[in-house]
Write a structure and sequence with these properties.
Layout (H helix, E strand, L loop, with lengths): L2 E2 L3 H13 L5 E7 L9 H7 L4 E6 L6 H11 L4 E5 L10 H9 L1 H9 L7 E7 L5 H9 L17 E4 L4 E5 L7 E2 L2 H9 L10 H15 L1 H8 L8 H12 L10 H13 L12
Parallel strand pairs: 2-3, 2-5, 3-4, 5-7
Antiparallel strand pairs: 1-8, 6-7
Helix pairs in contact: 8-9, 8-10, 8-11, 10-11
Keywords: Cytoplasm, GTP-binding, Nucleotide-binding
Function: Required for a late step of 50S ribosomal subunit assembly. Has GTPase activity.
Main location: cytoplasm
């Protein structure tokens, strides 16, 4: 079934983005490097139209570098530049100004011809919840101006922030689209924490994550959880992991909720190594 999850503040944010687009020179769209397709809000393209756009593939340390490079080639266009970044370490962030200058070269030339030498560009930061928008702004502003959190929905209102790059950034709350109809998208967003864990069954999430890892990253699973071999049945792998990690209830049964939380937390924290859930 499709998940309907479109809180009132998200509908309001969508309207505000449309209204405020005329105030900025470019849009910085953030996506999660592990789920580059699923973390794309399909409304953003329609809302932004031909406005110059930079797509930041954040949390690059958590995704496979070779697959991220394929995505960069796939998404790059004349009016859209794509960068791999890590907002926690500031890796790649200095390239934002370089790329923005390329996108806005015509505007800068016009201003210089009019005798304006000091140019401040304005950009709007957009993206789904929990993708790292506030972390980006805090890094560029070098202090904790924007609120951050491990849960989606922390930023609630529009903020203007000046940065040392000579760019003023408009922060906006994360927005999802009204219906998450694709099962793959639902799971990928839930795996990475963009959807609150309460929305979906956490044991089902862990089962589907194990299915994916068994197919694409079996060596990571066996190494992380010290498994002799993988079973063809995902539930059996979960039960083995539970017993190895002590996720047991009284009577010797498996505590499925506890082991599900453990597996998801370790995936989200990068304990299984860099993993890309989608290929272009």
């Amino acid at each position: 079934m499709a998940i309907n999850w479109f809180p009132g503040h998200m509908a309001k944010t969508k309207r505000e983005i449309k209204e405020n687009l005329k105030l900025v020179d470019a849009v910085i769209e953030m996506r999660d490097a592990r789920i580059i397709r699923s973390s794309k809000n399909p409304d953003i393209e329609d809302i932004c139209g031909s406005k110059p756009r930079i797509i930041l593939l954040n949390k690059s340390d958590l995704g496979e570098e070779s697959i991220t490079r394929l995505w960069i080639e796939h998404l790059s266009k004349e009016n859209i530049k794509v960068l791999s970044v890590n907002c926690n370490t500031a890796q790649g962030l200095k390239n934002i100004k370089i790329v923005l200058n390329q996108l806005l070269e015509e505007k800068h030339n016009r201003m210089k011809e009019r005798g304006i030498s000091k140019i401040t560009d304005r950009a709007m930061v957009v993206g789904i919840p929990n993708v790292g928008k506030s972390s980006l702004i805090n890094k560029l502003a070098r202090n904790k101006i924007a609120k951050t959190g491990d849960k989606p929905g922390v930023t609630k209102s529009k903020q203007w922030i000046k940065t040392e790059l000579g760019i003023e950034l408009m922060d906006t709350p994360g927005i999802l689209w009204p219906k998450l109809e694709s099962e793959e998208t639902r799971f990928n967003l839930a795996f990475t924490g963009a959807i609150k864990d309460e929305i979906m069954d956490i044991e089902d999430l862990a089962l589907n994550l194990i299915k994916f890892l068994c197919e694409y990253y079996p060596d990571r699973l066996t190494a992380r959880y010290k498994l002799d071999k993988l079973s063809e049945k995902p539930w059996e792998n979960i039960e083995i992991i539970a017993r190895k990690r002590g996720a047991i209830i009284s009577g010797g049964g498996v505590d499925y909720n506890r082991v599900a939380v453990l597996i998801l937390d370790e995936f989200r924290g990068g304990k299984l190594g860099p993993i890309s859930l989608e290929r272009p």
